Amino acid sequence: MGMGSEFREFAMRGNVVDLAVGVVIGAAFGKIVTALVDQIVMPPLGLLIGGVDFSDLVITLREATIDAAGETVPAVAIGIGEFLNVLLQFVIVAFAIFLVVKGINRLKRKQQAEEAPPEATPEDVLLLREIRDSLKRAP
User: How far apart are CA 64 and CA 77, in angstroms?
Assistant: First the structure.
């Protein structure tokens, strides 16, 4: 088997294709959630706490300065607003994945319940039936 045909066999397996589709859809969903958080959720939240743009919310540890050579030394700051945006995005994505997995599990349980074979008859019941059938045949 040549390298090309072996790769094609690998790439066309159902799991690989499903994974690729999942990654593409996941990336698109991530962009949607980012837009939702950045453009819809955070502006009203920032307005409620005093007109703060969350993406600009920082804790400055050291202000920007100009050194002896005349070059600007950038400020050192903790970007708490960006962190809150990413944290909220994570919570939304995690909740959406939870709902999808919960739905899939529910469907699997229904399918397993429908496909479940009938329970095996206990051995003592089988023996009693055998005795009953033997008594029926006896004269």
Answer: 10
For the segment 1-36, what is each residue's pLDDT rounded down to a tens digit?
688 888 888 777 767 778 888 889 889 988 998 888
Residue whose structure tokens are 């300065």: 65
Tell me the β-bridge partners of 77: 60
CA-closest candidate to residue 53, choices 80, 24, 87, 13: 80
Residue 83's closest CA among 42, 26, 28, 50?
A: 42
Q: Against a cut of 0.70, is the pTM above it? A: no
Task: Report how far apart, in Å, the C-alpha atoms of 11 and of each of 7, 22, 23, 32, 40 are.
Answer: 6, 15, 15, 28, 39
The residue written with tokens 């997995």 in the block is: 101
Closest-CA residue to 58 (of 80, 41, 75, 38)? 80
Contacts by residues 61-69 (CB-CB < 8 Å, ≥ 24 positions apart)? none
State the Cα–Cα distance between residues 51 and 53, nearest whole angstrom.
7
Read off the tokens for 100: 């999808």
- SS3 call for 39: helix
